[in-house]
Each structure stands twice: as structure tokens, then as C-alpha cells.
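Researcher: We plan to redesign the surface later, but first we want a full-length starting point. C-alpha cells attached.
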């Protein structure tokens, strides 16, 4: 069952593993690369990584990896054993802590479940995943992946798991057979040996590299508007020791500037998380009360500007470096670094020995951090509450598509300035501010409802909802043409909605005759007749006066002037009457 570690499609770091001898041992178990190192205590911990996660899915199949994870764990049932499964962007992890016998039983059960998924549980697990998602909540940075990557790859973590509605047993089974294989896995165990009886038999396959990143941002640094109380920044950096140090320096600087000195925030922090073999995600966050939001945004930007300008104290670097170096003073160091080494091996990232990493930490300079700060800003996406931050040199992320499709125009029944276009190439929502377009050949998913509703989401993250009840002329024939144009693999069939959940056009507020347009028309009509009578009376009076006072120099002018003085209100009243009637007609 245990053999020497072999290379999997050229991705395993054999030289790096050899350099770890004496700290971490390695072998294979049923073809699965296995790292192990002892830890104090009788109980052991193990983790089985697979190189598959949410970023490998499509929007239409989102959730398939999570479904496989749940199904594989089902047969374990109720247990006092400390175990769990987790689905991340680039990997899936089955984790366990207990006695050697319990760990063996758990791992054997997981692999048996992966070989033969209990598909009779599929519908139940779908509902469990939807319930889990409903209670999880998004968090302040939930929308950041969507805006950076779009509705694909690493951006899918911003979306609901649509696949839980329509994935078939064959799709789920195929995903398990091709992605949850011995060649696409790495095992780590905190033990001085591989436990007896461990059976990791899995289908053979190949190691899948992490998905290539996509981009929905034509320009960076960019910003988007978010919820009140939260300022979030993300950036993508090349994985390096200097970049990981910078994340700690940034977190400490934000905490000092925004909490300790400014008193604007309670939480101010930064994080560095590997994304794939070459890149990592830098995330920075600060909270704010509504009345302090502008100050927090300004202070956040100022802190980044200071670091970009190279104003980084040597003491800041030394403090962070000291904290990171202490990790290598921990007892049972080999066991402590096993998860990190296993994940690097899985993703194809070079493995560094503790001595190599110490050397890299000691070599980091303030100039290195200055360069990382500049790179972080160049690729930044900033989420701010309220007003924009164009003043800081950031560009608003695209809010509309660059073009609309041509096709049949369907007027909105709620807003005369909005229309839907259904064409041979896609759909567009036309608004006064710009179009929102989803092309059929770039449609990540289209959800369908029995009542005819369709929601199309493009790879760029833009979405258009077609509600037949809200647009003129969206007939079943138009919906059928739309269904035929969208690739079948992108269609997600949703259940019927309750009748009261089907949207209806909002009724425009009626104009009350007594106080609204009707009342105004009546009032102005009466005023119009009154002014007309006064004008006529004035004309007659002027004629009489002119006849009696023949000595006046220009009696006709007095009469004309009087009539026009009275006619001006008459003209104004007529204009008001016309405008009121026109508004009533449009309503």
C-alpha cells in the first residue's frame, strides 16, 4: 500500500520534497501523494486535499463540487469524531482529528463514498446546500470576486450554487470520477508513519492545474459602491515572501491609522491568501459608523498612499518579520507546516524549507515592500460606501455594457424610458444611463421559470431578467426563440413560482380629481372663463370712455392696452390647462 512518491504529470516538486527530509516524510498511499510528520499527543490529524473547487465549475453547474463533498460524507452519519469537509475556490478538503483508528475509518469512508456516491441522497443534499447558503450570508466582501473576475472562475464564489437546482445524477457522478481521483489529491497526516489499514483507493486520472484567472475590470485601480459601514480592498499579487510580509505591514498600518490614531474604525486588518500556484489575493478591510465613513475612506486611501510612497519604517518591517520568524520556533514544526506544504504540492507551488523561508524573510527590505505596495495599488479594486473615490485616481468599474444588440424592442410597462431588446445575438436592457447586454455566446447561465421568466447572466457578470409580465409583446414565441438561442449547457431550470411572486407592473399613482391633475384642470378652467369675462368687460368699458372723452390724444391705445393686460393671465391660464390635460393623457 505504501510506495515511493512519484511525479504526477510533472507537477510534484520532487526536489522540494527531498529537501524536507528530516522535517516531513513523504510516500504514496494507493497512488495518493502522502506527507506525514509526528505531533505530540495520542490523537492525530489528517487532511485529504483534492485539486478541485468552485473556480473549476461554471455558473450553471455551480455547487457540483460541494454536492460531491456532502454525498461522500453522508455514510459517516452521526459521530463524536471531529471531522468536516470544505469546498474552496481551488481545492476541496476532507479534514479529521481523532485516534488512529478513527482517522483511518474516516478516510476510508470518504474514499468509499467518492467511489460510489449515494445518489439516492441527491435531492436531499440539494436542499441542504440551498438551506446552508440561505443562512450563510454574504459578508462585506462577498461581491468583490464578481466585479473582478465576472461570473466565471474565481468570480463564482459571489454567486448562489445554481447547479443545486438542475444537476443530474450523471453530471455529479462524472464530476466525482474525473476530479476526485488519486492523481488529483494529496494527503497529510500528523503521524510518524502512515497508519495501517488505510485504503485510499480512487479512480486514476490526472492532476488539474488551477483555473486561469479571468477579468471583468478593463482598468485598475477601480472602485465600486458597497454597503454602508464597510471599506474593502482586494488586489492580486505574485506569490512571494515580500508580498506576505506586506499584507501584515498593511494590516498594522491600517489598525494604527484608523483605530488607534483616528478612532474611525473598530476593525482594520489585511490578509494574504494563495489563489493558485503563482498568485495570491491581498484583502484589506475597515469598518465604519455611517457618520465616519468619509473619514475612513480618506484614511484608508491615505494609508495606502503612504506605503506606496515608500514611507515604511524599518521598525514596522522588523516587527512583522519577527512575528513570522517565530512560527519556526514552534514545537512539532513538521506537523505544523504539513497543511501548507500539502496545499503547495497540490497547486504546484515551489516548496521552501524552513531555512530557505527564514533566509527570504531576512532578505525582505523596506524597498521591497514599497514595490509590493505599488503593485497592490495598480491592481486594486476598492469597495466604498456612498460617494465615489475618483479623487484618489480610481476608476468606477463598468456599470453598463459597451453596446446593445439589435432585435425586437419591448417597451417596459413600468417606465417609458426603459425597453428590452431580444435579438438573435442576445438580449439588452436599454436604460437612460446605458445598456446592459448579455450575448448568447457569452452566457454563463440562463435560469428559466415555467411562467416564462428568464434571467441571463453573462461571463462579464452583467445580468438581464426577462419578465413577460413587465414588457409589451414578450409572447411565448419570443421566449421560445430565446431558449433556442442559449446554449443548452447554460440553461438552469428553476421551479414554478407562487402566483403572488410573479411580478406585475407597478401601478402609477392615480391623479386625484379633487387635489391632483383633475382638480387643477377644473380650477384653471374656471379661472380661464373668469379672466375672459373680465377682459371682455374691460374692452366695452374702454370703448365707452373713448366715446365720451374725445379729447384724449390716443384713446384707441388705452383700450388695446387694457385688453392685453387682461389677456396675459388668460394666456397663462390656457397654458396651464393644456399642460394639465397633457399630463393626464400620459398617465
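Model: Full-length starting sequence:
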Amino acid at each position: 500500500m505504501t510506495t515511493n512518491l512519484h511525479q504526477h504529470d510533472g507537477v510534484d516538486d520532487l526536489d522540494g520534497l527531498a529537501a524536507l527530509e528530516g522535517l516531513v516524510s513523504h510516500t504514496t498511499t494507493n497512488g495518493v501523494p502522502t506527507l506525514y510528520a509526528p505531533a505530540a499527543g495520542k490523537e492525530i490529524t489528517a487532511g485529504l486535499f483534492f485539486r478541485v473547487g468552485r473556480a473549476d465549475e461554471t455558473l450553471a453547474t455551480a455547487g457540483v463540487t460541494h454536492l460531491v463533498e456532502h454525498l461522500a460524507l453522508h455514510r459517516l452519519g452521526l459521530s463524536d469524531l471531529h471531522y468536516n469537509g470544505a469546498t474552496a475556490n481551488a481545492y476541496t478538503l476532507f479534514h479529521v482529528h481523532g485516534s488512529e483508528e478513527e482517522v483511518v475509518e474516516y478516510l476510508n469512508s470518504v474514499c468509499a463514498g467518492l467511489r460510489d456516491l449515494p445518489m439516492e441522497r441527491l435531492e436531499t443534499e440539494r436542499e441542504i446546500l440551498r438551506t446552508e447558503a440561505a443562512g450563510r450570508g454574504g459578508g462585506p466582501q462577498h461581491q468583490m470576486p464578481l466585479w473582478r473576475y465576472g461570473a466565471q472562475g474565481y468570480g463564482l464564489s459571489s454567486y448562489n450554487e445554481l447547479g443545486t437546482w438542475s444537476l443530474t445524477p450523471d453530471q455529479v457522478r462524472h464530476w466525482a470520477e474525473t476530479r476526485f481521483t488519486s492523481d488529483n489529491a494529496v494527503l497529510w497526516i500528523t503521524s510518524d508513519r502512515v497508519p495501517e489499514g488505510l485504503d485510499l483507493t480512487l479512480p486514476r486520472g490526472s492532476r488539474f492545474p488551477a483555473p486561469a484567472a479571468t477579468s471583468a475590470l478593463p482598468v485598475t485601480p477601480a472602485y465600486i459602491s458597497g454597503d454602508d459601514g464597510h471599506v474593502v480592498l482586494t488586489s492580486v499579487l505574485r506569490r512571494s515572501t515580500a508580498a506576505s510580509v506586506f499584507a501584515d505591514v498593511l494590516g498594522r498600518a491600517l489598525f494604527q491609522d484608523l483605530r488607534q490614531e483616528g478612532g474611525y474604525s473598530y476593525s482594520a486588518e489585511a490578509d494574504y491568501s494563495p489563489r493558485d500556484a503563482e498568485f495570491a489575493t491581498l484583502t484589506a478591510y475597515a469598518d465604519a459608523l455611517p457618520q465616519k465613513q468619509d473619514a475612513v475612506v480618506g484614511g484608508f486611501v491615505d494609508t495606502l498612499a503612504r506605503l506606496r510612497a515608500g514611507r515604511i519604517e524599518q521598525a514596522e518591517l522588523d516587527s512583522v518579520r519577527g512575528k513570522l520568524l517565530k512560527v519556526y520556533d514552534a514545537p512539532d514544526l513538521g506537523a505544523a507546516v504539513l497543511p501548507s506544504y500539502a496545499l503547495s504540492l497540490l497547486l504546484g507551488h515551489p516548496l521552501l524549507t524552513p531555512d530557505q523561508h527564514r533566509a527570504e524573510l531576512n532578505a525582505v527590505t523596506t524597498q521591497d515592500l514599497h514595490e509590493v505596495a505599488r503593485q497592490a495599488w495598480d491592481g486594486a479594486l476598492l469597495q466604498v460606501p456612498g460617494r465615489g473615490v475618483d479623487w484618489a485616481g480610481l476608476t468606477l468599474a463598468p456599470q453598463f455594457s459597451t453596446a446593445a444588440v439589435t432585435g425586437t424592442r419591448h417597451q417596459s410597462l413600468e417606465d417609458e424610458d426603459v425597453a428590452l431588446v431580444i435579438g438573435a445575438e442576445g438580449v439588452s436592457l436599454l436604460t437612460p444611463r446605458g445598456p446592459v447586454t448579455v450575448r448568447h455566446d457569452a452566457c454563463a447561465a440562463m435560469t428559466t421559470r415555467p411562467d416564462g421568466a428568464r434571467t441571463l447572466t453573462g461571463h462579464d457578470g452583467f445580468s438581464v431578467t426577462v419578465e413577460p409580465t413587465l414588457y409589451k409583446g414578450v409572447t411565448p414565441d419570443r421566449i421560445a426563440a430565446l431558449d433556442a438561442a442559449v446554449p443548452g449547457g447554460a440553461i438552469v431550470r428553476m421551479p414554478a413560482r407562487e402566483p403572488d411572486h410573479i411580478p406585475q407592473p407597478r401601478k402609477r399613482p392615480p391623479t386625484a380629481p379633487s387635489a391632483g391633475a383633475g382638480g387643477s384642470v377644473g380650477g384653471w378652467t374656471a379661472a380661464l372663463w373668469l379672466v375672459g369675462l373680465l377682459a371682455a368687460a374691460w374692452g366695452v368699458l374702454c370703448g365707452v370712455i373713448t366715446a365720451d372723452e374725445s379729447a384724449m390724444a390716443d384713446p384707441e391705445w388705452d383700450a388695446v392696452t387694457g385688453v392685453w393686460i387682461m389677456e396675459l393671465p388668460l394666456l397663462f391660464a390656457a397654458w396651464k390647462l393644456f399642460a394639465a390635460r397633457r399630463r393626464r393623457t400620459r398617465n
